[in-house]
Every structure is written in structure tokens, then in C-alpha cells.
Amino acid sequence: MCSNLSLENKLEALQCHFNWKLNPGIERLTIILHTLEDIDTEEGNFWLGHIYNLQGYIQYKLGSSEKALSICSRATKTFQQLKNSDEGPWLIVNFGNLAWLHHLMGEDEKSQDYLSKVEALMSKYKAPPEQELHPEVCAEKAWALMRFDKEKAAELFQRAIEMQPENIEWQSSCVILSAEAFWGNMNKMTPDVLEKLRSATERDPENLFVAVLYLEARAAKGEQIRNEAIRLAEKVLERSTSRYNGITPLLRLYRKYMSKDEAIELAEEALKRHPDSRVLKRCAAICYVKKIFSPGFDPNTSSGTITRAITLWEEMLELYGESKLKDQITLRNLYAKLDEIKNESS
User: Are 177 and 191 in contact (CB under 8 A)?
Assistant: First the structure.
């Protein structure tokens, strides 16, 4: 058994979430946790183990050690199921997280056990020559940093892909990261990123998020995409309600390049299929808000639209718990719109 100081030195040398400086503050961590909870957790999701690893770390930072331990243990089982193997380099980060958690919870013997497991994995699955990290570790660090340091995440994804170029999921995530910089102004997307999106749709045809981004980028360049968007919407509606099934950018595309009314219809159809989804309630609420606060909206003939927006917004806020100030302001503005109608009709 090593001394406490020696144990901590070893823990601090691990490649895991506890050593990656992921601490932007409680509010930001809470938002990221909500995002992770809204990602598809169905069996078979390539990133499911990574999702649980990051969730576990954030739960600890938010003060829930037991919940963190439970989620990180779930990550272990998930990796083993997805990879159909009890061990592999994909467990290096997970075991590092568990080593830290047990130490922080005063269970140093268990912590040492996980440290030994990490050391055994790193000895068996060495990083390629002249590389600091094994590609699996590099990719997981990149995926985690997508929510904290996008520039560093992109660099790490590139390194992981260079070491293991056949991994389609890493490539698609790297492309999404490249495209994300243009979400606010897709018509300024550079030709190289547009080509990466096009290539990703061929390489990863089941990734509807990438497909929607590529369609949105083309629409921004002036292409007519209406028929393709409608066909893509049918595919998205058949999927689960995950934040990354493509519904969010698809509704953005509908609002901007088709019509806000069609976006509302699509959001309501999705919500009809999954009435308890907080992701879809937020998506639908945003579509209504975009219509209500757009030029040309006539509140005197659309009180029902405002009422529906308020209902969705309140349900969404309740489901997400603590709300951001801007969300509270939006709700107040919606009530103000409704009061205008009542005052004018009285």
C-alpha cells in the first residue's frame, strides 16, 4: 500500500476527467449536464460510455459523490457491452475517474485497486511511438473538451484520427466541431469545412445530425433544399428524442429557409410522438418564441400561439430545474405579449 502522498501523485498523473481542468463554474457545469442528459442513451450509442464518464465527473463537481460513483460504474459496464470485452484501452479514462472518486470518498484501498487496473491497461495497450496518449484516450479527451475548449478538442480529434483513421465516429464528431464555428452564420462556412461535411454524410450516412448540418450549409449558400429537408425530417422523426438526432439544427433550418409555421408543425409532430421529452418541449417552445417575436407577427389574431408558447416554456423550465436568467426573461416577455392582447380587447 502506497502512502497517501504517493497515491495522490499517481492520481494526478492519470489521464481522466479529474485532471483535464474541466471546471468552468457551477452554472456552466449544470448546463453541460443537462446537455449530456439530453443525448441519446439508448443501447448502441457509440458515445454512451463517454457520456456517463463525463456525467459522473460533473455530478461529483456538483456535490453528488454517490451518484457520480454510480454513473462512472455504469460507464464501465457500458464500455464492456459496447466493445464486447471486459478490458481494453477505452477503460483507461473510466478507471482513472473511479480511482479519483474512491480516493475523494476516503476509500483509498479501492482507489489503489483502480490505479493498478489503469497501470495494467497502459502497460498492455501502449500509445503509438512518439505519441503521449493512446488513440482511445485521445478521442475521449477530445469528446469531453468539445464542451470546454473547442480548439483543443479539434486538435486532439485530429491526433486520434491520424492514429486510428478508420474510426468513423471520431471523424464525424471532428467534422461537427469544425462546422460548429459557423452555426451562427452558415453562409460563411469555408469550402474545406463544407467538403468535410459532404464527405461525412457519405462516410457516416446514419448520422442525421451531420446530414442536417450539411443541408443547412447548402441552404445558406443559396441551394434549394426544401424537398430534401422534408425527406430528412421524416427520418429524424423516426429516431429517438436525443439532442443529437438532428432535430435541433433541422428546426433551425426550417425556421430560416422554409417557414416558422412549418417549423412549429414539425416540432409539434415530434412532440406528439414523444410527449414527455424535455428536449422536444424546448425545441417547440423556441419555435413558437421565434415566431412570436419576429417582425409581422400579429398578437391580436394569435393569442392561442402565445398561450401555447407559455405552456411549453413553463413545462420546459420545470423539467430542467434551475433556469437561466434569459429563459426567465423570455417567459416574462411572453406574458407581457399576452397582457397586451387582453388590455386591447377589454
Answer: no
DSSP string, 35-98: HHHTS--STT-TTHHHHHHHHHHHHHHTT-HHHHHHHHHHHHHHHHHHHTSS--GGGHHHHHHH
Distance of CA 16 to the CA centre of its chain: 19
What does the pLDDT look like over 180-224, one tens digit per residue?
989 889 999 999 999 999 999 999 999 999 999 999 999 999 999
Q: 281 with 312: CB under 8 angstroms? A: yes
Phi-psi sector, 202: left (phi>0), alpha (psi -120 to 50), beta = alpha
CB 290, CB 309: distance < 8 Å:
no
Q: Cell numbers at residue 132, please? A: 503521449
Q: Where in the chain is the domain with CATH 1.25.40.10?
A: 1-129
Q: How far is CA 214 from the centre of its chain?
A: 18
Q: Are 102 and 111 in contact (CB under 8 A)?
A: yes
Q: Is the dihedral of CA 76, 79, 84, 85 positive or negative?
A: negative
Are the beta carbons of 331 and 293 closer than 8 angstroms? no
Closest CA to 141 of 14, 8, 12: 14
d(CA 173, CA 93) in angstroms, rounded, equals 19
Domain 1-129 class? mainly alpha
Torsion of the alpha carbons at 158, 159, 162 and 163, rounded to the nearest 10: -150
- Do residues 163 and 115 lie in contact, with contact meaning Cβ atoms separated by under 8 Å? no
> Is 189:182 a contact under the CB 8 Å cutoff?
yes
Contact 46, 82 (CB under 8 A): yes
DSSP code at position 323: -
Please give the DSSP secondary-structure letter assigned to residue 189: -
Task: List, for residues 252-302, the tens digit of each pLDDT value.
Answer: 999 999 999 999 999 999 999 999 888 999 999 999 999 999 998 876 667
